[in-house]
Amino acid sequence: MNEIRHNWSLQEVTQLFDQPMNDLLFQAHTVHRKFHNPNEVQVSTLLSIKTGACPEDCKYCPQSAHYNTGLEKQKLMEVEKVIEEARRAKEAGATRFCMGAAWRSPPVADMPYVLDMVKQVKEMGMETCMTLGMLSDEQTAELADAGLDYYNHNLDTSPEFYDSIITTRNYQDRLDTLSRVRDAGMKICSGGIVGMGEGANDRAGLLMQLANLPVHPESVPINNLIKVEGTPLDDIEDLDPFDFVRTIAVARILMPHSQVRISAGRDDMNDQLQAMCFFAGANSIFCGEKLLTCPLPQQSDDMQLFERLGIQSEEYDETAAKPRRKEAALFYDAAS
């Protein structure tokens, strides 16, 4: 349990999933206590800086130009408006500000504005994250030079199920972008989506791909599909909530140092399910009015839940320009 591995087999990951729930939760929580403060959660805010008209055909996405979801298309936001939103997020307690644009890859003409956003948010004393689609070597270097902390690029699902969900880019395209980001010195935010009609082996396969990267993603968002009318997955069968918790728990076991985030779909989760996810190893959430174009719980509800569970939101150390994370070893004795 103490070994950090990058050579997991599908059989090993599947065996983790197949454990009795209590055994899986105990194992995941033990790992969580060793590497993290179990009563601290990092809070991020995600803003859509360019909405809709994406040329990709991701079947889950309301921003795809291939589907009629009634979404209002918007051009790239003005830098000043983005900074205003970042300031609001910081005042509300977010330590990381994430910016997402519905592009296949960033247009060259828009890159100066994107880079300015990164620089100004950094100057405010927040961690920065962006998701802009696929990147060229030049764009990756520019983002790194601007001081971008994290780049989000999800694998979405297993390689075997991927073609059932997306046809406009392949799995290797995603892996190549992650490799460029890592080589440029930025941190990686990469996870996936469950509840898209995939099988249990696909959930195991997604986490195996992430855990077997040369370096584990520093941030692993686990999204529960939000079914949006007009997308091909709008009537897919709901995922069993316990399968979502199992995915969180296995992600924690496979990637002990990573922040595991409860991402999309949290608006439909009750407090009890979220509490199970935190116990299983989730230690990050998105907070705010929206997750790109989809709703999130009211921030007041999140803070009330934190108070009821005795959870503290992670603080940001502006002097060190990084979150102030408490020493996890202090919390391990009770579980060792």
Largest sheet: 10 strands, parallel
Number of strands: 14
- Summarize the helix and strand pattern as letters: HHEHEHEHEHHEEHEHEHEEEHEEE
Please state the average pLDDT score. 86
Low-confidence stretches: 316-321, 323-336
In terms of DSSP E residues, the strand content is: 15-25%
N-to-C terminal Cα separation, in Å?
11 Å
Report on this model:
The protein is an alpha/beta fold and 336 residues long. 37% of the residues lie in helices and 17% in strands. Strands 1, 2, 3, 4, 5, 6, 7, 8, 9 and 12 form a 10-stranded parallel sheet that branches. It has a two-stranded antiparallel sheet with strand order 10-11. Helix 3 packs parallel to helix 4. It is globular and about 55 Å long. The termini are close together. The C terminus is likely disordered.
Relevant terms:
336 residues, alpha/beta, two-stranded antiparallel ribbon, 14 strands, 37% helix, 17% strand, disordered C terminus
Q: What is the compact description of this entry?
A:
Helix content is 37%, strand content 17%. By secondary structure, the chain is an alpha/beta fold.
Task: Please outline the helices and strands.
Elements: H1 10-17, H2 21-35, E1 40-50, H3 79-91, E2 96-101, H4 111-123, E3 127-131, H5 137-146, E4 150-152, H6 159-162, H7 171-183, E5 187-189, E6 192-194, H8 200-211, E7 219-224, H9 241-254, E8 259-262, H10 271-280, E9 284-286, E10 290-291, E11 294-295, H11 299-309, E12 312-313, E13 315-317, E14 322-324
Parallel strand pairs: 1-2, 1-9, 1-12, 2-3, 3-4, 4-5, 6-7, 7-8, 8-9
Antiparallel strand pairs: 10-11, 13-14
